[in-house]
Predict the structure.
Amino acid sequence: MAKTKTTFFCQHCGNQSSKWLGRCPACGEWNTFVEEVIQKADTPESKYRKDVKKSKPELIQEITYEKQNRMDTRSVELNRVLGGGLVPGSIILVGGEPGIGKSTLMLQMALNMKANRVLYVSGEESNQQLKMRADRLGINNPDCFILNETFTGEIFRHIGELEPSIVVIDSIQTLYSENLDSSAGSISQIRETAAELQRFSKTTGIPVILIGHITKDGGLAGPKLLEHMVDTVLQFEGDRHYGFRILRSVKNRFGSTSELGIFEMQTGGLREVLNPSEVLLTQRDDLVSGVAIAAMIEGQRPMLVETQALVGQAAYGTPQRSSTGFDLRRLNMLLAVLEKRSGFKLSTKDVFLNIAGGIRVDDPAIDLSVISAVLSSAEDVAIDKNICFAGEVGLSGEIRSVSRIEKRISEAEKLGFEKIIISKYNLKGVNTKQLKIEIIPVSRIQELLDKLL
Ligand code: TYD
Ligand code: MG
């Protein structure tokens, strides 16, 4: 086997050096040298290329394709986030903080896909630990193999012998390739091993799932390039203090990126949450101020979430603003709009906002519910628990229309809400005749105040 040649490149200016240098002599940047392969040895996975085709330009109108036969992961939530199942030959990166449940999610998938031979490669846990976890999950797939290995050459050898139909790698940061000298987890190793796996999945059609760690600032550890190399990037997130875990797709070549899967971590593994509104709404009998329900949509799915606000006199000179699950800048903007357009003196008040259930919301339709919760807390008047909201708030205090209003209304109706406050501009196009739920249109913040308080 020919030895691989590597050299060090400055990631800033491209200067080349045979040794690693702390500071680039050409551009003066520090710590920018990264080892890169310039001449490839025979890569281990090249042996599994069954027929290496010569490339040839094809007329686009003559290209035929079969409808992608997606593999069912036996999880409604996971399938949804993937865009309808696993695409053969795709490479998927699952990222998330340590302990969030990435390994659990993937092992559960491996065990649930009973008709498939799955190879679960772990560089993090021993076989016994994985067996213990499988027992805890209480599922059994007679054709699921566990491999404790971090060297890609060996992994490809085992894949060649086992011929699995799915490969899970836990995690990409533990892998190393003999093509490079640098240690496992270094940027060049991550890039090299991911590239080997990518070529492997593209040439064999076997889907590969990579588990990836997340850095302190929330990005996926490793070069941004890793995200470019894979077909799909899924982010597994959630609040440790809640059992809920949310799987989002950040990038998906085979589906929408606005989809969301919700799970609940229980003692026997991850349970799918098929009706999110039921868990995101707190069941309570007594009325409290500062709570408003928003009818939002994530991806294709409508759900009702509870927005909670607490407004109090600021103890110090500068009032505090804090928000969980909602963009803080947007909260500040909404507070400024409220102050300017409705005359509420909020600039001397502390405002805390929380989206219940530990989820993060980007849907602008939640604005109306946010300001209603803030007003309700500021005035200490509870909002009727049978009312929900869907509307965006503009800078001049106007209530703007939101997308797919019918879906929101019917979800609210299904969950037994009696009234929904929406933008006046959303009214046309809504067939109100057959609805049991009462629709209250508003066009300005002032109108909302009159209706609420
Ligand atoms: P894990 O999948 O190991 O996380 P990651 O791979 O993302 O680091 O999940 C670990 C956590 O999940 C751990 O704190 C224990 C908890 N857990 C349960 O609550 N129930 C279970 O059935 C399992 C397997 C784990
Ligand atoms: Mg793990």
In short: The mean pLDDT is 87. Residues 58 and 64 are 10 Å apart (CA to CA). The chain has three domains: 1-42, 71-272, 279-452.
